[in-house]
Design a protein that fits this description.
1 helix; alpha+beta
């Protein structure tokens, strides 16, 4: 079962990237682990990997546009 998380609020004083990252970290351990890939998008750029988010955390937070939507996906095959 996959997990999706979407941040849609427009208040840029709230760190959406940190909230998405925290959601990804917590979800990565649920139900024996979401270890079959992940992806994050700000609707302009996409960061993704076929690996486990816990072992493959990229530096996406510094490059992501936090003014719009941020969507994340954790895959469990």
């Amino acid at each position: 079962m996959c997990r999706l998380c979407l941040a849609t609020f427009t208040d840029v004083s709230i760190p959406k990237a940190e909230l998405i990252h925290e959601c990804m970290l917590r979800s990565a351990h649920d139900e024996l682990g979401q270890k079959d890939g992940w992806g994050i998008t700000d609707m302009h750029n996409i960061w993704k990997s076929p690996g486990w988010y816990m072992e493959d955390i990229p530096d996406w937070k510094s490059d992501i546009d936090q003014r719009g939507f941020i969507m994340s996906h954790l895959r469990k095959g």
